[in-house]
Each structure stands twice: as structure tokens, then as C-alpha cells.
Design a protein that fits this description.
- Helices cover 39% and strands 17% of the residues.
- The protein contains ten helices and nine strands.
- Strands 1-2-3-4-5-6-8-9 form an eight-stranded parallel barrel, surrounded by four helices.
- α4 packs parallel to α6.
- The longest helix has 15 residues.
- The mean pLDDT is 95.
- Bound molecules: NADP nicotinamide-adenine-dinucleotide phosphate.
- The site of NADP nicotinamide-adenine-dinucleotide phosphate (NAP) has 24 residues, from β9 and α9.
Length: 261
């Protein structure tokens, strides 16, 4: 099993580049540089901020190529051509030789999609094998939700995929109960998305730290959850994520109360 080398907190880049047309560029580049200096993983997508997220990242990377971070990049995969374009285009625009972890979104929900092909074979799975062979994708995870997590888990045993990724935080767990039990029992790597569930809810355990600390302690409570992706473009919020990244698990009594034991 791989994916052991992730940072416990991954910098989510979804809001970078959101206001470039209003002139907000230097501030977003500075936040990306702050995360690069911390040596943590980044998560990004060619679609974020209509593509301007990649512009901000490229500017930050070009300011210090020695600190280009390991990247999780969302890859759309409805057809072999789409997947190949998305991977080659992301590498070219970001100025990197490879995607460290491709987040395969299995966007086509019809039978015969990537998840099915990882077990039965087919042209999209062949293209994934080819992109890995070419060294453009080093590792891959499957994006799942409650509806397809059982199928995703079965497909995850393919040697083309190292783990799963899904919305996972104190108020969301997009894995079926059976899939969550198997993930823990077999230590199948999961990358959690949305550390703070959008920062809209307060947690009810003030003795376990603020929202950020609580969320990252929840991640630390489950070794199969290798990293949690939290988004910000506020330097103080990023600082808080970084301060809480290496933390202790929540007490068992609290996990029981929130029904997460
Ligand atoms: N399907 C997918 O693959 C998918 C979907 C959604 C997200 N993602 C990835 O996951 C990342 C995180 O998702 P997310 O942004 O939806 O959720 P999140 O990380 O749970 O929450 C981020 C929100 O919380 C705010 N925030 C951060 N730190 C805070 C703090 N200390 N105090 C108060 N507010 C704080 C941020 O605003 P500020 O900017 O003001 O800090 C932002 O609005 C994204 O950046 C993206 O990389 C992937």
C-alpha cells in the first residue's frame, strides 16, 4: 500500500485566482508561496477559478522552482482522449514533469466508466496505464461518494490506483458504512477533502481546540486517512492549518459522542 508520504494537511487551492480580474494576483501568489515554504502537498484542478488557479500556481512555482510542491491534480476521465489531454495540459501549464497523485473523478456515471474498467479492462483504464508508463502520473486515487464507494473500493485493488478520496470531515463522510469499515480494517489510503466542511459549522467540544484543531485531530484519529485537504487564501488561516497539521488524535470518548469511533 502506498500514499504513505503525504503531508497530514494538504493545501487546497480552489479559491486561488478567484479575483484576478479585480487585480488580486500578488496576494494569492504570496499565500501559495507560504504553503510552498511549509513543504506541504497541494491539491488543485485545471477548472478552479476558470483556470486562473493554475496561473497563480505557475507564477508561485516560477518564483522558486526548488520548492515546487508535490501535487494532487484533479483529472477528468470520461474518455481516453479527455484524460490524456487533461494530464498533458496540467503538466504543461504548471511547468511540472508529472502529476504526483492524479485524482480520478470517474465522471461518467454510466456502466463501463473508469471504475468498471479498472476491474474489467477497457480503453480508459488502458490510457491510465499508458500515462503511468510515460511517467506523467506517478500515483492515483479514485474520487468516490456514498453511491459509488463500494464499487470504488473494489476497483481500488487494481494496480493502477493506490487509494480513494472523498468528502470527509466532522460532518461529511462520503463512504458507505461498509466501505468505511473496510478502509479502516485493511488500511486502504484515503485522502480527505474539505477539512472544515466549508467552515460553516461549530463543533461542540471546546476542550478539543478550535475548529481547525478539531478537524485535524479528527484526521489524526484515523490512520487510513493520510491527509486532509483544507482550502484558504488567507495567510492567517493557512498559518493555523499548518500549526495544527501534526496533532494528536481526539479522545475515544469524543469520537464516540460524534459517532465516529
Ligand atoms: N470534488 C473535489 O475534488 C473537490 C471539491 C471541493 C473541494 N476540493 C478541494 O478541497 C479544498 C478544500 O475544500 P473547501 O474549500 O470546500 O472546504 P474547507 O477547506 O472545508 O473550507 C474552506 C473554507 O473555510 C475558510 N477557512 C479556512 N480556514 C479558516 C479558519 N481558520 N477560520 C475560518 N474560516 C476558515 C476558507 O476561507 P478563507 O479563504 O477566507 O480562509 C474557505 O472558505 C479545496 O481548496 C479543493 O482543493 C475538491
Amino acid at each position: 500500500m502506498n500514499l504513505t508520504h503525504l503531508s497530514p494537511y494538504t493545501f487546497g487551492c480552489m479559491s486561488l485566482g478567484m479575483n484576478v480580474e479585480q487585480g488580486r494576483i500578488a496576494e494569492d501568489v504570496a499565500v501559495a508561496r507560504q504553503a510552498m515554504d511549509a513543504g506541504i502537498w497541494f491539491h488543485c484542478s485545471p477548472t478552479y477559478s476558470r483556470g486562473f488557479c493554475f496561473m497563480i500556481l505557475r507564477m508561485a512555482f516560477d518564483q522558486n522552482r526548488s520548492k515546487v510542491p508535490p501535487l494532487i491534480v484533479k483529472v477528468r476521465d470520461a474518455s481516453p482522449e479527455f484524460m490524456r489531454f487533461e494530464v498533458e495540459d496540467s503538466c504543461r501549464r504548471l511547468g511540472v514533469e508529472a502529476i504526483d497523485i492524479a485524482q480520478l473523478v470517474s465522471m461518467d456515471r454510466e456502466p463501463g466508466n473508469l471504475i468498471d474498467q479498472l476491474q474489467g479492462g477497457g480503453p480508459i483504464a488502458d490510457e491510465l496505464a499508458c500515462l503511468r508508463e510515460r511517467g506523467l502520473i506517478k500515483q492515483a486515487v479514485l474520487f468516490v461518494d456514498k453511491q459509488n464507494s463500494d464499487a470504488g473500493l473494489a476497483a481500488q485493488s487494481s494496480n493502477l490506483v493506490e487509494g480513494l478520496t472523498c468528502y470527509w470531515n466532522a460532518s461529511q463522510r462520503e463512504l458507505s458504512d461498509a466501505a468505511w469499515a473496510e478502509v479502516q480494517a485493511k488500511d486502504i489510503p484515503v485522502i480527505a477533502i474539505r477539512t472544515l466542511a466549508g467552515a460553516t459549522e461549530k463543533h461542540p467540544h471546546p476542550d478539543c481546540g478550535d475548529e481547525v484543531e478539531f478537524a485535524l485531530r479528527l484526521r489524526a484519529s484515523f490512520p487510513a486517512v493520510r491527509s486532509s485537504i483544507g482550502g484558504t487564501r488567507n495567510p492567517l488561516h493557512l498559518k493555523r492549518f499548518l500549526e495544527c497539521a501534526e496533532t494528536s488524535p481526539l479522545p475515544k470518548s469524543v469520537l464516540k459522542k460524534i459517532n465516529w469511533q
